[in-house]
Each structure stands twice: as C-alpha cells, then as structure tokens.
Amino acid sequence: MILHTELCDILGIEVPVLQGGMAWVATGELAAAVSEAGGLGIIGAGNAPASVLEAEIKKAKALTAKPFGVNIMLLSPFVDEVVDLVIREEVRVVTTGAGNPGKYVDRFKEKGIRVIPVVSAVALAKRLERLEVDAMIAEGLEAGGHIGDLTTMVLVPQIVDAVSVPVIAAGGIADGRGVAAALALGAKGVQIGTRFICASECTAHPNYKEMVVKAKDRDTVVTGHSTGHPVRVLHNRMAREFERMEKEGVTVAELEKFGAGRLAAAVRDGDVVNGSVMAGQSAGLVKKVEPAADIIKDLVNGTLRVIDELKAKYRA
Ligand code: TUI
Asked: Choosing a second label site near 41 at 20 to 30 A (CA), which of 7, 73, 160, 251?
C-alpha cells in the first residue's frame, strides 16, 4: 500500500485513515483491528466512566502493539477521570469531540500524547492552533452523531486555509472517491466512522449493522436542534417520537431524559426501533459487513485508482 502523507509519520501509522471514536461502537476490538490493518483505531470513551474505558484500553493493548487512540467526548460527566486514565495508560493519541479541549491540551502534550481535536468551525480551529495541537479533524454535517452546521465540502478547505497543522477530513467519507476528494480539499488524512460500524470486528449488535447496510441516501435525519446538540441518526420510531416532542416544544430536560440510554439500547441490545441508531449520511454507501483490513484495502486502492484516473482522463 502506497498512500502516504505527513500524518502517517506524526501518528506512526501506515495509511492516513483514522477510525471514528464512536461511543459504544468503537470498542477495544474494533480499534485494535483498524490499527493492525495500518490505520489508527480509536476507542470511543463516550459517556462511560474510566473503569469501563480502562477495560477497553487493556483489550486493545492485548490485541495490537501498534498505536491506537481514545476519543474523549467532552460533554461526558466522567471527562476528568477519563483524561487522568488516558494519561496513566500512556495512550498514544487523543481525539476530542463535542467541545473545546483547551484546558486539557498541556497535560497531554507534557506526556508526549498526540492531541487531535474535532472542529466544526474555523473560530475554534484558530484558537486551538495556538495551543499547539498536533492536527485537527474537520468534521462536516454529513457525519453521524453530534454535528456542526457546515458540510465537509466547505468546512475542510476553510480549516486548511486557517491553520498550519495537518487537517483530517471527516463526515460523508466511506470509499476511495471520498478519500481522494478529501485530499483534493487539502486534507492529509480522513476519519471514517459509519463504514467501520460494519467492520466484522466491530462489536455493535448485528441489527445495528444491518440497518446501516440497508440504509439508502435519505434515511438519516438530524434531531435535537432545539437542545443545542443536533444529532444525526437513522430514521426510526425513536427519531419520529423525538421529532414530535421537539415540535410540541417539550423542555430540553425532558428531551434529554427521553434520549438517555438510547444509544446503548441500539448498539448493545440491538433495539433499532426504540434505540438511537447514530450514523452518517454515508450509510447509503456502505454495502456489506467485512473485516477492517478489507475496508482499509478498499479505501487505499480506491483512492489510488481515482488519483490515477483523474490524471489520465483530464490532463490535456
Ligand atoms: O462528538 C462528535 N460526535 C458525537 S458526540 C456524541 S454523544 C452526544 N449525544 C447527544 C448529544 C451530544 C453528544 C455523539 N456523536 N463528533 C465530533 C464533533 N465535535 N462534532 C461537532 C463537534 C464540536 C462541536 C462544538 C466540536 C467543538 C465544538 O465547540 C464548541 C465550543 O466550545 O466552541
């Protein structure tokens, strides 16, 4: 495989593909499989306490000697203990989501941990560059879960222009065409979530994987605009109920209570009717469940094919 960018050297990986740190979905097994395949596997801490994350980190360490990361969800009630754990376990890379990681950056850097925040707007990217983060993930609204309000197509080049660290594109990327497009926008790598839900090594319930594989182009919706935390999910009864409650003007506290535990219900228990089936718009591009190594191979081969074809076809 010969798809190499400076991001590979910074992270000690073979191909510039990061696996999204999806809460409940991105366990030690999935992260290890992606890292073994040459990408960067990432364990999603989500809302879990440090003890739960610790077990996942130990699992990943038992399955691979290659670098892997942990995603810290900054709205988690356990964020402080999760930060302490990641430092204690000497995890090589930290990505952050759903907020500004500013107050933690120095502690990670002191330990030589690479810090890569997710940003969904230029202003935060500029602020974080001053803290000397190692790279940034520019995530567009095509992504699953909690999202910002710009598309990948317009966000990535604006972040690339605003900062001098490597930018990783995320949101809507699921095959080599998407990776090549991200590189064309100036990204040095990609982060992919939805397609890795359908990795064989992913421990998400088969019902969840099946719903992603069966999803068509318009099957995701965004709920939670009224809460200030919009979340992209596959449309089901849960999403319909949530939409109805939002339209009726139900309070944020009630909506949060209604939503509590729903992601776990879908991922762990397979309740894809009453659970929250978070997935990106790229679900429509995901066709099957296959090993993480095959996904990585397909991404790399597809990217190289697109680059060659563009050059052969359009250079006059
Ligand atoms: O974080 C994600 N995706 C997520 S987090 C999550 S758990 C959750 N569930 C319900 C409500 C809220 C969270 C499920 N999916 N992706 C990375 C991401 N980060 N997307 C958007 C952002 C973001 C948003 C605002 C990053 C920074 C930010 O900054 C705000 C500020 O303080 O400037």
From this structure: 160
Q: What dihedral do alpha carbons 3, 5, 9, 12 form, nearest 10°?
A: -40
Q: List b or e across 224-251, with b for residues whose CB sees 16 or more CB atoms inside 10 angstroms.
A: bebbebbbbbbebebbeebbebbeeeee
Task: Give Cα 289 distance to the centre of its chain.
Answer: 18
User: What's the 10 CA to ligand 1 centre distance in angstroms?
Assistant: 24
* For helices 79-88 and 50-63, angle between their N-to-C axes, nearest 10 degrees: 30
Is the separation of the CB atoms in 219 and 232 below 8 Å?
no
CB of 44 shorter than 6 A to ligand 1: no
pLDDT in tens, 151-169: 999 999 999 999 999 999 9
Q: What is the pTM of this model?
A: 0.97
Ligand 1 site-directed mutation target among 100, 141, 146, 223, most atoms within 8 Å of CB: 146
Domains in the chain, CATH or no CATH each:
6-203+288-314 (3.20.20.70), 216-278 (no CATH)
What's the mean pLDDT when you consider all of the chain? 97
State the distance from the centre of ligand 1 to the C-alpha of 82, rounded, in angstroms: 17
Ligand 1 center–CA 99 separation, angstroms: 6
What's the CA-to-centroid distance between 95 and ligand 1, angstroms?
A: 12
**What is the CB-side half-sphere exposure of residue 135 using CA atoms within 13 A?**
27
Calculate mean pLDDT across residues 310-316.
89
